[in-house]
Amino acid sequence: MIQSTMFEEVIETVSEPLTGTEHQFKDLQDGTEYIVRVKAVNDEGSGPYSEQTEPIKCQDKIEEERPSFVSAPEETIALKNSKVKVTAEFKGVPTPEVKWFKNKREIYAGKRQWIETANGTTTLTIDEMRDDDEGEYTMCKMF
């Protein structure tokens, strides 16, 4: 037997025999939180209810989309002491996390460099280019 409750009100009781460990509830309201408890019922009788779950929010299933770059940064040559911005666009569902690397080492924001990522665009900005800024800059997209 499976019961789903909403604010202590029983909204569905499943009494037909179930096999396996999964059950799909019907007619749930989008945006509503539900708590689920289960108990075993068989020819010998019924057991106690399980502990209730944490609230589970009902929402439409989100179709996933593999992360990919829409536009990659162009090769950039910068003059010493100049400010450089390198931008790329990406997409994916859920929104991927993008990290920047210089010579295969992750770049972190600092006094002269920062990374801005929002709405499918990521930008690496380096202020006052120096000789030690020379290198291969790459990105990696992650879930």
TrEMBL record:
Q: Give a Gene Ontology cellular component term annotated to this protein.
A: M band
Which part of the chain is the Fibronectin type-III domain? Answer: 1-61
Q: Which GO terms describe its biological process?
A: cardiac muscle tissue development; sarcomere organization
Ig-like domain span: 67-138
Tell me the GO molecular function terms.
structural constituent of muscle
Which key words are in the record?
Disulfide bond, Immunoglobulin domain
From the Swiss-Prot or TrEMBL record, give the protein name. Ig-like domain-containing protein
Q: Which species is this record about?
A: Diploscapter pachys
Q: What is the lineage of its organism?
A: Eukaryota, Metazoa, Ecdysozoa, Nematoda, Chromadorea
